[in-house]
Design a protein that fits this description.
about 160 residues, FomD barrel-like fold, two-stranded antiparallel sheet, Ntdp-like, hydrolase activity
Length: about 160
């Protein structure tokens, strides 16, 4: 299943067996493998992570793949200034009627727009999740995906289009 530019879909981010968040996004492009959507910050209030603050008016251009174990989200403020890229390690995205489902695997990468060093995030949560014991192959794919994201970050994701 693929969508046309301008379609509005629901993005559902899952963590283990529960829905973490869902929101509506506008399809920018979809070639059947690589899906790009755009959505405003889905939080109801601002959230300060210490290394970046997401707030009302921020716009996320999100890249999902049906065959890659990650997503890349370009984050801009309300005036259009680039804040950086928030990357989730996740199982490949699954398209269902009117919705895109993404299963988060806890590992994340933040890449600041100012050229600063990428930050690996939530490695402790990944270890605590038990994925390494439950599904060693998926855990290995998750670690490989985080390494690949760090390589892609070296040129600020120019290779993803």
């Amino acid at each position: 299943m693929s969508w046309a530019p301008g379609d509005r879909i629901e993005v559902r981010l899952r963590k283990e067996d529960r829905e973490k968040i869902s929101y509506l996004a506008d399809v920018v492009a979809d070639d059947g493998d690589h899906l790009v959507v755009r959505a405003p910050w889905a939080g109801t209030t601002a959230r300060d992570f210490g290394f970046v603050r997401f707030e009302q008016g921020d716009v996320f251009t999100e890249h999902y793949w049906r065959d890659r174990w990650y997503s890349v989200k370009e984050v801009r403020d309300a005036a259009g200034a680039l804040k950086g890229w928030y990357c989730d390690v996740a199982r490949p995205a699954v398209a269902r009627e009117g919705a895109l489902e993404v299963a988060d695997l806890d590992l994340d990468l933040w890449v600041p727009a100012d050229g600063g060093t990428p930050l690996r995030l939530d490695e402790d949560e990944f270890l605590d999740s038990g994925l390494t014991e439950r599904d060693p192959a998926a855990a290995a794919r998750a670690r490989e995906a985080l390494d690949e994201l760090e390589r892609l970050a070296a040129d600020r994701f120019a290779a993803i289009g």
